[in-house]
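Second opinion, please. Please look over this fold, written as tokens:

===
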Amino acid sequence: MKKYQDHYFKKAKQDKYPARSVYKLQEMDKRFHLLRSGQNILDLGATPGSWAIFAAKKAGPQGRVLAVDINETETSFPPQVLFMQGDILDQDATLHDAIHSRAPFDLVLSDMAPNTTGIKIRDQARSVELAQAAMALARSVLTQGGAAAIKVFQGPDVPDFLKEMREIFTKVKTFKPKSSRPESPEVFVLGLGRKVQS
């Protein structure tokens, strides 16, 4: 696949990040103040690793980042980042046990996306499936008051997803970063202030 040679792609190379996606997280953090020193962070869909590196910088040496992706990565991470390869849609308990053993988390990030087919309705449905999996994990591992930022492709299933997010968080916002490609259907759903678990 031909790489998208734009401003953010070039900037990522200059800033020594493995992908341009880091600027989406930077924009979200600037707007919603997601990242703070000392946080315990779960990063889903982490490959190639830009979000985990940026999150680790913001969390500092006292913070921890668990980065998870279905694919391997050759990225060298800071010492406070643990990378695990695995599929959160898989029923195998090994990955889920590892995630829960490091809970509670202050922040759940998900940049997960399906391998697109070009069939819009199918890609959107698969994106929502991944977003729902991230939301379910956030529901079970976030500390009270914690936050989540979850990518989803815009489409007819998103209103129901937002409704489910509002059951978990006191505030729910949608955000399309400027660094997101204009033709991309992605939007990020921010859940702020994890409600007290009933």
Remarks:
- The chain has a mean pLDDT of 91.
- Helices lie at 7-14, 22-32, 50-59, 93-101, 120-141, 158-168.
- The first strand starts at residue 40 and ends at 44.
